[in-house]
Each structure stands twice: as structure tokens, then as C-alpha cells.
Amino acid sequence: xxxxxxxxxxxxxxxxxxxxxxxxxxxxxxxxxxxxxxxxxxxxxxxxxxxxxxxxxxxxxxxxxxxxxxxxxxxxxxxxxxxxxxxxxxxxxxxxxxxxxxxxxxxxxxxxxxxxxxxxxxxxxxxxxxxxxxxxxxxxxxxxxxxxxxxxxxxxxxxxxxxxxxxxxxxxxxxxxxxxxxxxxxxxxxxxxxxxxxxxxxxxxxxxxxxxxxxxxxxxxxxxxxxxxxxxxxxxxxxxxxxxxxxxxxxxxxxxxxxxxxxxxxxxxxxxxxxxxxxxxxxxxxxxxxxxxxxxxxxxxxxxxxxxxxxxxxxxxxxxxxxxx
Length: 325
Ligand SMILES: [Zn+2]
What we know:
The protein is mainly α and 325 residues long. The protein has one domain (21-130, 153-321). The chain has helices at residues 3-6, 18-44, 52-82, 89-94, 98-132, 138-147, 159-192, 197-223, 228-251, 261-291, 301-321. The longest helix has 35 residues, at 98-132. The model is unreliable at 137-156 (pLDDT under 50). The structure holds zinc ion. Zinc ion binds next to α7.
């Protein structure tokens, strides 16, 4: 590919509908925030009486959404951008497997970071507990000795164990949010630089894209045992990143070149990192937690079937959307 094709400049204002684009920013922002907050608000507001099965279905549907985001949205995009001829001969011809290296390292680093965070939270909280329980009563002593023999499928009664599970869940959801949010920026960016009929089809696709991911993330945040304020706060980065990407696309529309080597390498590497995070989060944390949690009873047959169908539904919906965004 010639150097000129790799540095082709953006659009002129005559081809670009600015008011429509600005309207699109607000549409995507509202959809992202509302869908992400939906589960949190429904779960914490006593006025809403949503059957628990609805949460169950949305939770597993969300697992399918995030899994497909990793494998069908981010992974191919990571390889396509880094092996684009404009990204350079080394990446496109000499070493086309380079994206795999970053994805692999990203997952491994996440494993290390998660283990380290869990270690720190566990030990700081355990120290606090030890301080507050420095003079335990006979009752608590006997309770404590009982927890040493807690059966694997019984609910944990050990505060240290609870803290460890909680911190692990928080870290998992944060990792998922990071992966999803990074992808949202680039989805927003492609919408912000779209023009003509492409804009409308992309706007609809991105609206569903953000809606599905918002639901998936929101239900995970709503399940965390943290204050509602922090759940709402955690929704905000997701709500604003796609619009941020759109705003960057709008601002840089005249100079933006999706084929420039710098853009390709930057987006490609960030996509690789997000892919590694999401694959790690789904396979190591989410699926194991939902189906093989050693501290909870295994799902009953009907529930397992319902969860599997919900996951497949999420996979299909998000995979179909990959054709557009
Ligand atoms: Zn996508």
C-alpha cells in the first residue's frame, strides 16, 4: 500500500453532518448510562419488584455479550489493525502473530495484578478484623473453630473468606469494565468519523452495542456487595467513554486517518490489551464463579439450562452486531 493511502486525510465539512453527529453523542450517552444503571436502580429501589429470574437471565445474557465482545469484536479487530499493510512490514509480514503475544501477556499481567490486589485487600482487611476481635468471646471462638470445618458448598461464615470473595468479585468486574470501556472508545470513534448512510446504520448498531454491554456490566455491578453510590459511580466511565470516542472523532474528523501507522498501531495494541483482559475475566473469573463456585451449591439442572440458553443468546446477539460495530 502506498504511503499516500496510509496517510489519507479525513472528511471535508460538506460530507459531514455535524448537528447529527452531536445529537448522536447524546443518544449514545443516554443509552449507555440508562442501560448500565438499570440493574443497579432496579435492585436497590424498593418500588421495583423484578423477579429474580429476570436478573438471572440478564446476568448470563451479559456473560454471552462480554464473551462475544472479546472474541468477535476485539480479537479480529486487534489482528486486522496490526496486520494492516499500513501498520508496517514488520507487523504485517514478518511477525503477524505479534497481536497474540500482547493478548497473551495482557491476560498474564491481569492474573498477576488480580492476585496481588486480592492479597493486599485480604491482608489489610484481615488485620482490621484481628484488631477489632482482639478479645473474642467464647461464642465467637467456637464459631471461629467451626468455620475451619466449613463444607465447600456451604455459604462462607468466615469474615476473612467473605472479604476475599468480595474483593475478588470487585476486581473481576473492574477488569471487565476496563476491557469493555476501551472498546467503547473505539466504537464511539468510528461513529464520530462516520458520514452519510453509514452513520445511520452505525448509530443503530452502536446503540444496541452500548445497550447490551450496559446491561451486562450493570447487572454485574448491581450484584457487587458495595454501596449503591459506588455502583452508580462505577457505571459512569462506561456511560461516557463511547460519547468521548465520538467527541474525539468529531473533533479530529478533518485530520483523522484510520490508516495512519500511528493510529493503527495504537488502536491495535489497545485492542490486544482489552482482548487479553476480557478473555481472562470471562474464562478465569466469570464462568468459574457462576458455574463452579466452590462456596455455593452448583446450579440446578433447569437453572443451568436457562443460564446456558441466556449465554448463547448473548453470544448470538453480540456476534451479529459485530458485522456493523
Ligand atoms: Zn464492538
